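Dear Dr. H.,

I hope your travels went smoothly. While you were away I took the liberty of generating a structure for the chain from your last submission, since the lab meeting agenda had it listed for discussion. I wanted you to have the full record in hand beforehand rather than looking at slides cold. The sequence, exactly as received, is reproduced here:
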Amino acid sequence: MPLSGLSCPPPKRAQRDLSRKANGSRNRDKARVKVARAHARVARRDFHHRLSTRLIRENQAVAVETLAVNGLARTRLAASVHDAGWSAFVHMLEYKAARYGRRLVRIGRFEPTSRVCSVCGVKDGPKPLHVREWACSGCGAVLDRDINAAVNVATAAGLAASARGAQVRPEPVRAQRDEAGTRRSGRPAAVGIPGS
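The corresponding predicted structure, in token form, is as follows:
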């Protein structure tokens, strides 16, 4: 969804519209902005596809925290929140998890993941966003805000055993049809799992 009221055509059509505008005109400037916005949207979607595929292929289970995007959009971070495309990214994770047989767990948005100490479980008060590291009042552990929240999300999702360093060997995953090779004779080639 574009940030301003201007609609955003696909890059090919936007580029074609730009080439028809006269040099130095105001309409050319508007068309140039449309081209840039269309290319940014395609680049963001490409990044989301690559990252979601990598996360799903490399992990047996993925946990995400449900965010109140509408609430975040009312703050001064509105432009970057809408630009990030969180719901589209989570949607990609959902259907790719179903495709590859992985587990996607959603954590409720009212779970206090950044307020609870992941070491002792003491709930501290709210912290402003500029506080990136804090010391627990219960055990004195110095915690990074993002790493602490990630550990708490994994704990809430029931994935804490693998998050805490337990030896977990991933099961071999059968290759998808388009990933499996074929021999010249037409019979499918045997796809081996590396390291097994």
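Two observations you may find useful: The first strand starts at residue 61 and ends at 65. Residues 115 and 125 are 6 Å apart (CA to CA).

With kind regards,
E. W.
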